[in-house]
Amino acid sequence: MNESEQQQHRINLEASQVNEQGEFEILAITAGDGNGWKFSAETLQKSIQLWDGAQTFIDHHWFGHSVHDLAGVCHSPSWDEQAQGVKLKLKPIGPAASVLAEMGKQILATDEKARPDVGFSADVTFSAKGKEVAEILRVFSVDLVVNPARGGEFIRQIYQKLQKTGKEFQNMANPETEKLSSQTPTQEILPGVERVQQRIQDDQRAVEQLLNVQGKIDELEGEAEKARALRVQMCSQFLESALTAAKLPTPLTERLRKQFTGQLFEAEELTTAIEDSRAMLSELTGASVVQGPRIHSVFDSRDKLQAAADDLLSAPRDKGLESVNVAKLSGIRELYLMMTGDYDLHGGYDPQRVQLATTVDFTGLVKNALNKIVVNTWELLGQAGYDWWTRIVRTEHFNSLHSITGTLVGTVGTLPTVAEGGDYTELVIGDSPETADFVKYGGYIPLTLELIDRDESRKLAAYPRELAAAGLRRISALVAAIFTDNAGVGPTMADTGALFNATAVAAAGGHANLLTGALTSAEWDAACTAVYDQPMLIKNAASYYGTGPKMAINPRYLVVPRALQLAGMKILYPTLENAANIYSENMQRGQPGDVITVPEWTDANDWAAVCDPLLAPAIYVGERFGIMPEIFIAGDNLSPAVFTNDEHRLKVRHFLACWVNDFRPLHKSNVA
């Protein structure tokens, strides 16, 4: 059985009859197919209570409804067995109620064939198995729209008052009396006339009674109106007390206040609305962790805004948002004004003019998009060769910016013999600590209000690409410098010897990993032999230097400048001949991965050999907050940069440490 899927869809309902005034009785949804989903009668019956209190707005909207479009409230849901659907009563209410009533009046006055195609569309969330709707989870609204599909209709108008006066009854009697008197003999007419007159008198008395009753009804309605005004005042006081105690964010508080102000309501209705608002706030701001059945295709306004911002800046969308259909933004200026309401470009936030109230802000949307551009650019530059260092270093994450101590622990070597009944001897194990400090790299690029007002979206999208390139090149330069610092012998190690030196390993600081021969097959083999024969560390002390067993690992990578790339490829891969007729074919096979070209090396002759860091790590790169640089955006009306310079600041920060932990897996040839 397929996993349940929770979907949010708008199911269109058709309006077949609209009355002039009062409350409407509508058929909201019927069993059958809707927008490709199959709704069964059993599923609809289970959802009846969910339709109670559903609001009606004029038209759908991308990012939530506005109170200005509120047109009515649905209530008293019931099951219509004959129609096999959910029946509701719709009470016009709110700023757009007149639009709903006027639309009904116009439609009633129009011939059925010439009526406009106007009806209702329901915004619901449901779970499904395949295309079978298993359960309707929530009904958000039932909105009046143009060009509906199928499912529901207006049935009738209720509470319509019809009155006829006694005069109307009298007008019905005289023509009949005259007609009878002119066509029938008197002896035949009189009994009939008497019966008609008696009926008229009875009708007149009934009309008088009705008029008296109507007068009493009017008096009662006047008293009821006074009582209603008092109840409205009490409801208003209760509303303010409940909203103060709820402590909801201002936009939600104002939304509830506009919804209930001037209305009669039960305490339970307001409590339910407050709880629904709390649930909505929790969904928007809570952690995106879902337990239970897997849910697909559930998107909120934050998701849609992020997708629109990503499209604007040509950033890749988040996983799962690839298929979200959103309106295309015209530029960064439209996004800024829509999210901040800052039409005067003061650099602040104007809640009275903001077009879209949401929990995400402008800087957060832009920062997310720019960081995704950094990741994308990082990958593209890596494919172009600037990630060469990832193959020869080991990357580690650190939880603080304290100085790093990279300790190389010595090996036991070989186990000594223990005679029968003899004592065990202490094994000699030492270490060789190397230290490094984190260095902070970074800077900022100004995102001026002039740039926003000029709508320079392409320029903004170019910034993170430059920041990503700068971060990747920084690591490339740090690793490359290990081989070229100090005239090509590298940094000084903890054992007092330069990283690359020709001194025998039996002496303190001796590394025996530096040659001077030009790159040839013989010199490559000599370097490989030297690395293979390197003795492992036992202890950094006299009489122990160079006494460990052989490391017995061959170098995997030949590291060269661009000038030696082809020579290195031909050494490691003899089939790559330099003959003109097959050279292009060989290049199409792809550059061999074991020959690494270093962009920063300027010497055309020096080269190096490096072991696989998975087997014998030598060079380490430490990161504190990620191997890629971080992007921050500072910009609001309290930011000094906004106040003094009219600019949001796009800051990049990168904490890195780079060091050599062990000389043995490395070999260098400095060619004169």
Could you give the topology of this structure?
Layout: E1 5-14, E2 23-30, E3 32-34, E4 37-39, H1 41-46, E5 55-57, E6 70-80, E7 85-92, H2 97-108, E8 118-129, E9 132-146, E10 153-158, H3 166-183, H4 186-246, H5 250-260, H6 267-285, H7 301-312, H8 332-340, H9 362-386, E11 393-397, E12 404-409, E13 431-436, E14 439-448, H10 449-453, H11 457-488, E15 514-515, H12 521-532, E16 557-560, H13 565-572, H14 580-588, E17 595-597, E18 607-610, E19 619-623, E20 630-634, H15 640-645, E21 647-660, E22 666-669
Parallel strand pairs: 11-19, 15-22, 16-17
Antiparallel strand pairs: 1-8, 2-7, 2-10, 3-4, 5-6, 6-7, 8-9, 12-13, 14-21, 16-18, 18-22, 19-21, 20-21
Helix pairs in contact: 3-4, 4-5, 4-6, 7-9, 9-11
Q: Mind explaining what this structure looks like?
A:
The structure is a single chain. This protein is an alpha+beta fold and 672 residues long. It has 3 domains: 5-158, Alpha-Beta Barrel (Serine Protease, Human Cytomegalovirus Protease, Chain A), CATH 3.20.16; 166-280; 372-406 and 430-669, no CATH class. 36% of the residues lie in helices and 22% in strands. The chain has 15 helices and 22 strands. It has helices at 41-46, 97-108, 166-183, 186-246, 250-260, 267-285, 301-312, 332-340, 362-386, 449-453, 457-488, 521-532, 565-572, 580-588, 640-645, and strands spanning 5-14, 23-30, 32-34, 37-39, 55-57, 70-80, 85-92, 118-129, 132-146, 153-158, 393-397, 404-409, 431-436, 439-448, 514-515, 557-560, 595-597, 607-610, 619-623, 630-634, 647-660, 666-669. It has a 5-stranded antiparallel beta sheet. Strands 11, 14, 19, 20 and 21 form a 5-stranded mixed beta sheet that branches. A hairpin with a 2-residue loop joins strand 3 and strand 4 (37-39). Helix 3 (166-183) runs antiparallel to helix 4 (186-246) and helix 4 packs across helix 6 (267-285). The longest helix has 61 residues, at 186-246. The relative contact order is 0.09. Residues 1-5, 8-21, 154-189, 287-298 and 579-591 have low confidence and may be disordered.
